[in-house]
Specification:
4 copies of one chain form a homotetramer. Helix content of chain A is 40%, strand content 21%. With 209 residues, chain A is an alpha/beta fold. A 5-stranded parallel beta sheet of chain A has the order 2-1-3-4-5, sandwiched between helices. In chain A, helix 1 crosses helix 7. Chains A and B meet through helix 6, strand 5, helix 7 and strand 6 of A and helix 6, strand 5, helix 7 and strand 6 of B.
Chain lengths: 209, 209, 209, 209
């Protein structure tokens, strides 16, 4: 099985990367082949007018979308890593998803067939100290996964602001790792129906610097 | 530590009870004292006009609210169990929460001080096969916990329709049990900041009766 | 046409009543027959266990639900008035909706056929000064209307706390009245597809008492 | 007063443009100066790594953001027009909003002071025939306006798929026009507190081609 980790942030060494990296590490313990892609290295344009493409018979936007989309389609599992910006996913992650429509415009059935059942997890660091601050990001991503009939295996969110912060949160790193083991393993995924969530709420010690 | 499990359904032997019971079992392994309360046995009236109560200087509604509220205030941890009805919590669970306002009306500071930091988990069975079907129930309950500054430790949701269904879902039962161990233990709760969720999506076998 | 206004609050002279009353006044100008029902005068129990009812072949809860439900079914248009409590509708409004299931349990097709296309509007006063504070109440009610395929004509929300406050907000009263005219008239409702919302945000004058 | 209309779609002749154009027409009747900007003509890059910019002391991304942001800051009212893609705003509209952070990074107080109280409306065409399909787009945009303390005057959504469709929906065009009059006028905006929404639900005639 191949697992692809999408770092949908423009920081290559930030909290999104830390989470995605740790999930990949967990997946590797089960012998999975892994790959990490930095959106910071790619140019993913917004969806275009479509009419030019319809005439041409194929998407005519020239950028890194097709290469990335093909990598994702070849993978068995996708880690969608995105920071929370303005209550939603980063614009670069949104652009990637918007462009799925380019594939659907020319091969709706084929694209859906390839996405259906594809495993995925969501990894979201955010500055907002309220866990509920990410509710609409989760809704947007999860309803998209639902629409595409993907196998949505779970998610991790961490409160982190400075780019190194997640890297020092050993408990969340441990759980990101476990999420990676879970997606590689999927031991119980198809045997039950529901979800279980564990929350964490750091209480800063008095006088902590 | 004392853990109280609220079965906010009018079925005493349904899926809400199954989840709450299993969470309590998990908590017991850590030596917790537990109690289960069935809303089906209680009369919790809606919030009233307030003006009669203001004159009297105390809430004048005579029902089982005060007894239940006192039990909750004496507990260290509360399991809020409610089925999903019309995208929200059951009316009896909502009535219980609405009545908190009766306490806040006469002793806002004191009530908040007692609720602040109180541990809680949420258990929600639902018929809707989409996990996203419970998003607004979660939002309502979680924002209420957030407002009261409770220590919200996690949640479990299961897709179940017939009243015995959760009782046969061994994987979800195992995770409900683990959620109980987690709330009794809270080993990592205050050491980190975020959440981790594991999803399950049963695929019915072909030809299953 | 008959318009029924549901005051889903336990205050008979509060902001919910003010909004519902004004909407009914608007409807009357178009010659509609109107009726107002105070939930404060009624006992609407939560949904029960169902098994006793299934044996009996009919809902066995004895309270005011059947009378109210019949009134609603005989009306062409329903005004759902509810205050915002804990990010959702009042427990009494929720109890009314939860009990629809009692009708669906015994006559699913018949009940749905009667609700389908029934006109409705939503009226929500709230203390939260952020208009977004009611988002999950709106979602719960609107998705329920959508599920029942009702003709959802519009909504009004007002920021009001003290029970007389809406009654002094002449602009919002004017718009509640117009919403009543709109639902009685429905001039354009079936000719288009979408919604238009006008917001109001009072800025308190300096030194205002 | 100057009103700027943002067409956050890559189609210059689509439904987003139709709505924005009609709102501007309404504003013009009150003597407002208007301008329309097509995101299709601009390059708005995602937010970058920040560290290069922090060293430089200014945002170092070279694209059309600064020009557009300055236009918006010079305007008294902004029309945010965006299609609904995957339950959220278009990636180009999201990119524009994400980049606000670039201004906040270097002049947080100054940027907020300029945005505070700035009037805005939201215009959203979508293919989803359920009005609730746009709920998370609305939440994301409206919470952003709320965070920036903008004067959010209202919104219009229309169900439209083919690019000419809104242009033939005379009722919705009339209401978009009225929204433009409303934002230019704001007669009652600061006198009240709440919102009023009118819904439309086209029922296609039998046998309609």
């Amino acid at each position: 099985m191949k697992v692809i980790g999408l770092v949908g942030s423009n920081r290559k060494d930030g909290n999104t990367n830390t989470l995605v990296e740790k999930i990949l590490e967990g997946a590797k313990t089960k012998g999975q082949e892994t790959e990490k892609v930095f959106f910071a290295d790619l140019k993913i344009s917004p969806i275009g007018d479509c009419s030019a493409c319809r005439k041409a018979g194929h998407c005519s936007i020239e950028d890194d979308f097709d290469g990335l989309m093909d990598k994702v389609l070849e993978s068995d599992c996708v880690i969608f890593g995105t920071p929370l910006y303005w209550y939603g996913p980063s614009s670069q992650m949104k652009a990637f998803m918007d462009r799925w429509v380019c594939r659907m415009a020319f091969d709706d059935e084929g694209f859906r067939a390839k996405m259906k059942g594809k495993k995925c997890v969501l990894a979201v660091p955010h500055q907002d100290t309220r866990l509920s601050g990410a509710e609409h990001l989760f809704a947007i991503m999860e309803k998209t996964f639902e629409f595409m009939e993907m196998a949505y295996l779970g998610r991790i969110q961490t409160v982190a602001w400075r780019r190194w912060e997640s890297g020092q949160d050993e408990v969340m790193l441990k759980h990101a790792f476990e999420l990676g083991v879970w997606l590689a393993d999927m031991e119980d995924f198809k045997k039950a129906s529901g979800s279980v969530t564990f929350n964490f709420a750091r209480v800063e010690a008095e006088g902590q610097s």
